[in-house]
Amino acid sequence: xxxxxxxxxxxxxxxxxxxxxxxxxxxxxxxxxxxxxxxxxxxxxxxxxxxxxxxxxxxxxxxxxxxxxxxxxxxxxxxxxxxxxxxxxxxxxxxxxxxxxxxxxxxxxxxxxxxxxxxxxxxxxxxxxxxxxxxxxxxxxxxxxxxxxxxxxxxxxxxxxxxxxxxxxxxxxxxxxxxxxxxxxxxxxxxxxxxxxxxxxxxxxxxxxxxxxxxxxxxxxxxxxxxxxxxxxxxxxxxxxxxxxxxxxxxxxxxxxxxxxxxxxxxxxxxxxxxxxxxxxxxxxxxxxxxxxxxxxxxxxxxxxxxxxxxxxxxxxxxxxxxxxxxxxxxxxxxxxxxxxxxxxxxxxxxxxxxxxxxxxxxxxxxxxxxxxxxxxxxxxxxxxxxxxxxxxxxxxxxxxxxxxxxxxxxxxxxxxxxxxxxxxxxxxxxxxxxxxxxxxxxxxxxxxxxxxxxxxxxxxxxxxxxxxxxxxxxxxxxxxxxxxxxxxxxxxxxxxxxxxxxxxxxxxxxxxxxxxxxxxxxxxxxxxxxxxxxxxxxxxxxxxxxxxxxxxxxxxxxxxxxxxxxxxxxxxxxxxxxxxxxxxxxxxxxxxxxxxxxxxxxxxxxxxxxxxxxxxxxxxxxxxxxxxxxxxxxxxxxxxxxxxxxxxxxxxxxxxxxxxxxxxxxxxxxxxxxxxxxxxxxxxxxxxxxxxxxxxxxxxxxxxxxxxxxxxxxxxxxxxxxxxxxxxxxxxxxxxxxxxxxxxxx
Length: 747
Fold this sequence. Notes:
The protein is of the alpha/beta class and 747 residues long. The protein contains 22 helices and 29 strands.
């Protein structure tokens, strides 16, 4: 570790000077410091699997409401599907094309792939055991059973047979495999039955595949009277009495003879394929990005397979046939007990059984907006003019803050223009409707729609066309970059001239996820922020590559450099004996340059607290490298999604005009894609009370008395949720209780 007293005092001063220019350390100054060890990074892919293991540990936690454990099982399965479709598929593609390089962790591409396979096999088997040995029996104890068709009584079976004929049989399509019928294409994530039938006349065996239509309910609910629910009735099960669920593939399997009349069904097995579904578009060659993306979405359906899930008990010959025809390697095959595809467990988690779920939570209107919640738009704008408003969703209602802000801007005749980024939104988005209303009212409306938002591409194409047809100016950002920043700008004519109102957030303008994700947002009429957003929107919709900003850090130009410069300043301040600390809350931390800067800060003695929901490539607590760094992870009822970057700022910069802690919130995670390949925006919080609120939020997150996972130097995570006196504090529950105690809560 470099001795703080060994550095020339001028070095600390020089480092501090770099903050104003948002620049990184001069290479010559780096040479003064000792080199960092080569093995200082954890592997990002294995760190992601460790994150999903934490999700699985929630499903294993018997202290949680039972149906919430069911939901965590579904989330684990859905997370892993996406991991294989994107990360594993991308790694395999890079290996096949020869462009894969050694990971920052030092592992070769094939070593990473082998480690992923080993850990994924372990986690998927554990996932199946948790369901079969813990959750399923607990559900049965509450009168919620998952049963096979053969377990039902005669009357229930008769009713299910009628249900099959009426609701299922008409949409099934059996596909034979023989010289006239080649092995069919198996779509990604589809659930399938591999069927062997025999012709009684010839004794010859034939193979066929039956796809379980994805629009059918994954589990068919049979109420206390034995009445099966139709597909459009699957959102809620009977309120009283025991409830049985039968996997839809089991119902199909019981009626296979109706699909193959005249044939003898000898055996059947369920299987599931995961394919490469990452989308690549060469934007430089695409005259129309919208059409290019639509074409690529069609190609996605035919990506190569990367995982084959088979139900335990499959016959060796059918197993061999599927492996051969799909071109799978043995380590890509996962044999698991039925039922496969537990993403469908969400249907059970949504049962109307409040005693088995988290207590009902209703967000309330932010206190600065509560008094004008139903007043005129001018009153809402007046409140924003009075003081910046810091929103914390879902505790602060999205619908009565951000959504109301945009809806009233659309309706206000004094508003002349609205500019908005849309990365993800819902099918019935009031935000989209507000933009359409504003355009139809003659306002200047710009919507920057990111149609490359992974797995939301088709939805965003639809919104883009809908907006265009209403007269909204729709643009798709800058070639080569995704637009991930969360920004709204409203230009309003007032008595003293034009005034700009801004919203900068950490989350998408998505009313549904705003109730499930923890996010931060700033509503402000500050002229500097308004000017910054004007310049940034001009950069996104036109040509303004050299824009400079006052209260924003904007990727790909200044987020990494700005954060590293501030980290370096804290290190310089610590070496100079001044107060110094760093507090960061993000979804993921992978960027090597930022991690190295944090290591340097730790070597200088700076206390560093990091809250990471998902991936973390930094190794905390390593002697001589990261002794002063703590990394925590909080998972729970809400998905932690907010980003906070806070610095002690013990040496105020007179030119910047602020003193004390410096705090930013925004859309950027510490990943290469965010810092290099996306347009991201962080906004500096100016209100001292709001600065304190955000610093306190990170402090509470890392406190020893808060339930969380602690990252160890070897990359493993250790859960701390029990203390000597019982369970540790659940921070999300604490924030819910605080929200309920606010003046006006429950109105």
